[in-house]
Amino acid sequence: MSSTRPRRARSAAAKRQREREILDAARSLGTGRSVREVTLTDIAAAVGMHKSAMLRYFETREQIFLNLTAEGWQDWSATLRTRLAERPGAGPDEVAAIVARSLVTRPFFCDLLAQAPLNLERNVSLESAYAFKTVALGEVAALAAVLREHLGITETAATDVVATATGMAGALWQMAAPGTRLRELYESRPEPAHAVVDVEPRLARILAALLNGMSADATEQSARPQR
Question: What is the pLDDT of residues 12-22, one digit of tens each?
Answer without folding.
Answer: 888 889 999 99
